[in-house]
């Protein structure tokens, strides 16, 4: 059933996303509406179930999240009322079809192997913020396997936040990899959790490490609770 559901999800992407890309290029000012509609329909068709703890801060300027699955992006695109701007690795923008799904709405694509890219990141981030976009970044830099520990945080997010003095809202995803694993072509559609932590404007020299520890603590609480539930 998992493989069949994954196949159906691929069919949905191949059929619907090209039209979404076309409409975003044609009607740029409505790209957020289009993206949200496509993501909402995906959740509805596949009866995706999740638990939200807390709520989105509509005054947040950047959302900092751990990353387990492409479902992280789909669900946030569907449920978040803000005009999101994802920061992703440049290679994703070169992919057939999916690349244009990032380019059409002017997501920020960077070459993480080049230290000079930070200048372009800051320039593009300033443009998106000026246009009332809310930045979204996965500081781990890649998808984790959904184990007990978050991956180390890369420094790009810290430089970006410090430079613009952004209001940060951390978000913790748990169980999205078990729900949808694109690499393994599995779509079990199990329940997952999204926890919105309190927003803050960073201060002090060690705030980034403290943020990592906070997100790890919150993730561990959900992880432990999940283990208890499974044990029962």
Automatic annotation (TrEMBL):
Q: In which pathway does it act?
A: Phospholipid metabolism; CDP-diacylglycerol biosynthesis; CDP-diacylglycerol from sn-glycerol 3-phosphate: step 2/3; Lipid metabolism
Q: Does the keyword Cell inner membrane apply?
A: yes
Q: Fetch the InterPro entries from UniProt.
A: AGP_acyltrans, Plipid/glycerol_acylTrfase
In the record, what terms sit under GO molecular function? acyltransferase activity
Q: Where in the cell is it found?
A: Cell inner membrane
Q: Which SMART domains match?
A: PlsC
* Entry membrane topology: Peripheral membrane protein
Q: Which family does it belong to?
A: Belongs to the 1-acyl-sn-glycerol-3-phosphate acyltransferase family.
- Report the domain remarks: The HXXXXD motif is essential for acyltransferase activity and may constitute the binding site for the phosphate moiety of the glycerol-3-phosphate.
What exactly does this protein do?
A: Converts lysophosphatidic acid (LPA) into phosphatidic acid by incorporating acyl moiety at the 2 position.
Annotated protein name in UniProt: 1-acyl-sn-glycerol-3-phosphate acyltransferase
Q: List the source organism.
A: Helicobacter ibis
